Amino acid sequence: MDKIQLMKEKIELLNRAAKAYYQENREIMSNYEYDRLYDELAELEKETGMVLSNSPTVRVGYELLTALPKERHERPMLSLDKTKDVEALKAWLGSQKGLLSWKLDGLTLVLTYRNGALDKAVTRGNGEVGEVVTNNVRVFKNIPLTIPYKGELILRGEAVISYSDFNRINEEMIDAAVKYKNPRNLCSGSVRQLNNKVTSERNVNFYAFSLVKADFSDFGNSRAMQLEWLRSQGFDIVDYRMVDAGTIGEAVRWFAAQTEGNDLPTDGLVLAFDDIAYSVSLGATSKFPKDSIAFKWRDEIKETVIREIEWSASRTGLINPIAIFEPVELEGTTVSRASLHNISIMEQLQIGIGDTVTVYKANMIIPQIHENLTRSSNLKVPDKCPVCGGMTEIRQNVDVKYLYCTNMNCAARHIKKFTHFASRDAMNIEGLSEATIEKFVAAGLVKEYADLYRLAEHKDRIVNMEGFGEKSFDNLIKSVDRSRKTTAVRLLYGLGIPNIGLSNARLICRRFEHDWNRIENAAFEQLTEISGIGDVMADAFVSYFNDGENRKAVNSILEEVELEKPDSAANAQLLGNATFVITGSLERFANRKELVELIERMGGKVSGSVSARTSYLINNDITSGSTKNKTARELGIPIITEAQFLDWVENGNRP
Fold this sequence. Notes:
Elements: H1 3-23, H2 31-48, E1 51-52, E2 70-72, E3 82-83, H3 86-93, E4 98-104, E5 107-114, E6 117-123, E7 129-131, H4 134-137, E8 144-146, E9 153-160, H5 163-171, H6 183-191, H7 196-200, E10 205-214, H8 223-232, E11 240-243, H9 248-258, E12 266-273, H10 276-282, E13 292-295, E14 302-313, E15 318-330, E16 333-339, H11 343-349, E17 356-362, E18 366-372, E19 392-397, E20 400-405, H12 415-422, H13 434-442, H14 459-462, H15 470-482, E21 485-486, H16 488-494, H17 502-511, H18 516-520, H19 524-528, H20 535-546, H21 548-558, E22 562-563, H22 568-572, E23 579-582, H23 592-601, E24 605-607, E25 616-618, H24 627-635, E26 639-640, H25 642-651
Parallel strand pairs: 3-13, 21-22, 23-24, 23-25, 25-26
Antiparallel strand pairs: 1-8, 2-7, 4-11, 4-12, 5-6, 5-9, 9-10, 12-13, 14-15, 14-17, 15-16, 15-20, 17-18, 19-20
Helix pairs in contact: 1-2, 12-13, 16-17
């Protein structure tokens, strides 16, 4: 394995271990193992002369600035000329060889290294003057802070935030009006922060795409060799393919096929000559360099007719208009809906039912309305929320109008509680993800827990939703029906009563012999008599069931499900004198004592060390290199997780 890759793997493992230990109060490796990996990493850094920004051997201090200083670039950073025609690319390339690479959609940066260390980082800015963001770049996820090369190095690259991180960060923002519209805006806002602690939390990555200066001549007159040399210095480089006029069409098609699953935002491709001397000889125009050209995807535009506008409510109270139109084929897939984003865009397009519109896929991924050809403006903005029926209001933020539901108790604001209710340890409705639940709530199909068991009544609407069809609908209903036979523990935990976790739900249900009537009518004093249930938990429990709306919701659930009581006699000996050893942190029990009591109550034994007499080692980190794990493997003793143990206890599925 290449040393740089080995360093990256050790850094990732060490950082995971540190996070678990310092932030999550659990250990995923012994101190000895951590120190060994740390020393190996330090030795690799010494050997390669390279230190990556997220290495635990360095700690970049956070700094709060009052303003970002500005700096003029040594040479202007020109924009690229562009085309949407593959034949034009072939003609441009001529008889030369070229590099075809992603055109990443982020923030372009110029980095300078001196004496093997990052000295300066400057944004592109207006092409002539950029902002100095050195301290922010130091906390990027993948920047080398030191490199083996000790001469002056200047390079260019793109700072980007992945779609997955973009979605995660936007989800954490409560106010819809301040959410970022795309990863590029988020990246720009993250890199240009005055407080680099914010930057460090955003998972910004840097991909080098051009070497500007290095007092090192062994590049074989090849731009590809320059990029590979940058890779050897520890930089991630933009993904590229070597092409000529005969292969460029196939390469473009390859990149196009990768677009949909690509987690990094792109807005096309870049073609550059591989021959460095030839590139330099071409010079530049006043606007564009002559050594490279951008390729933009030619938007496939289709005409269709608006059939309805769906108003989709979200957990922030924001209600987005979504255009539903006659299905059309775009970029190889059938498309029938596109977000209109907000009231202002809807008004600009003068959208109305029956209008003829043109649609396309932005960057070959996201369906968008291109133009409204008839502009009827016959659409009325709803004055009631489609989910709860509460009053709506239009709010304006920086000249953009948004529609909001004013009801703080709207079901759309409580997506998380429905997701928790359907989760594995609760009602265990497989395949009912948070994203799917959000669709159902937005469409008004789910307003209370029991509605999840009534989805079969809405087959016609669900099979026509994006991402659904007959087969996925049938699978979902089968999963819903399987979950109808459940236990009091699962139901109680699924209700999401504050402070009542899975282990506490077990304790309460056991105390009242899994009799739901006794459970929901439990008195404060009865609950506090249970070991492990304190005043705060008992108060939250009693308050929940004293609320009439909560009682009504629970009664609706009970009409849809069947609560099965565990066989006490069978459970008493379920673990059949098996001997367990417990190691590592626990996720589903309040403490180790609680797990030990359960094992002993069900006929098992617990030992402190692994030996030939051990039946099972319980450890949530099965791949750990801990002493107990190693001993268990040597003796052929099964290592099982908490989840596997609970599946055995609850469902009789012995690992």
